[in-house]
Design brief:
- The protein is an alpha/beta fold.
- It has three helices and nine strands, in the order βαβαβββαββββ.
- The strands form two sheets. Strands 4-3-2-5-6-7 form a six-stranded mixed beta sheet, with helices on both faces. The protein has a three-stranded antiparallel beta sheet with strand order 1-9-8.
- Helix 2 links the parallel strand 2 and strand 3.
- Helix 1 crosses helix 2.
- The longest helix is centred in the N-terminal third of the chain and has 19 residues.
- 31% of the residues are buried.
- The mean pLDDT is 92.
- It binds guanosine-5'-monophosphate and magnesium ion.
Length: 177
């Protein structure tokens, strides 16, 4: 009993709210007249995306994509495949990828390559968090919420074994991975 790690708050809900507002303002200024397609990465980005789009008061579309990386535990193996693809065409559209975390960068790099094959008019990345110390593949994040240390994050959509997605704060568990 009581052996499960208790999540510690890294960024509280007020700070998240302010950061999502800042990102929305940046995205608004670049995309308000572009009718973009926001592509949320399931499952982790769904809370972030839900909060973000309600602050964007211009026409946009939402798509989801689900990827799986063959790997054990908390490390991305780099062997990624699309489990659930897009419902609508992104050819000629302005695409904005909405991520929860860019960690090694392998997932985002894969996704950029995958979507670029569909010939969008433009493509950029918006990520709630980034762990630059873990990068294996360089990724340009045009809209970044928080730079985070090398800790395992949960809450605000992020899970550990499907637990903790419902926490309203961004938390970490344990020490380093
Ligand atoms: P990458 O391919 O950049 O190494 O990892 C991308 C994915 O790994 C993220 O979108 C996320 O789903 C998962 N991930 C990486 N770090 C963390 C973390 O600290 N917490 C959780 N819950 N997922 C993570
Ligand atoms: Mg993810």
């Amino acid at each position: 009993m009581g052996l499960k790690p208790k999540p510690q708050v890294l960024f509280g809900r007020k700070e998240i709210e302010a950061t999502v507002s800042r990102l929305a303002a940046e995205i608004r200024s670049d995309y308000h007249d572009k009718h973009p397609v926001l592509v949320g990465i399931l499952k982790g980005a769904f809370v972030f995306l839900a909060d973000l789009i309600r602050l964007l008061d211009f026409p946009l579309e939402v798509e989801f994509i689900r990827l799986s990386s063959y790997g054990k535990g908390k490390e991305s193996s780099g062997k990624i495949r699309v489990v659930q693809g897009l419902d609508s065409e992104v050819k000629g559209r302005h695409v904005l990828i909405i991520e929860d975390i860019v960690d090694s960068g392998l997932t985002t790099t894969f996704l950029l390559d995958y979507l670029l094959q569909k010939k969008p008019a433009s493509i950029r990345v918006c990520s709630l968090t980034s762990k630059p110390s873990r990068r294996k593949s360089p990724v340009t994040i045009s809209y970044l919420g928080f730079t985070v240390p090398d800790k395992f994050l949960v809450g605000y959509g992020l899970d550990s074994g499907e637990e903790f997605r419902n926490l309203p704060d961004i938390c970490f568990i344990g020490g380093d991975k």
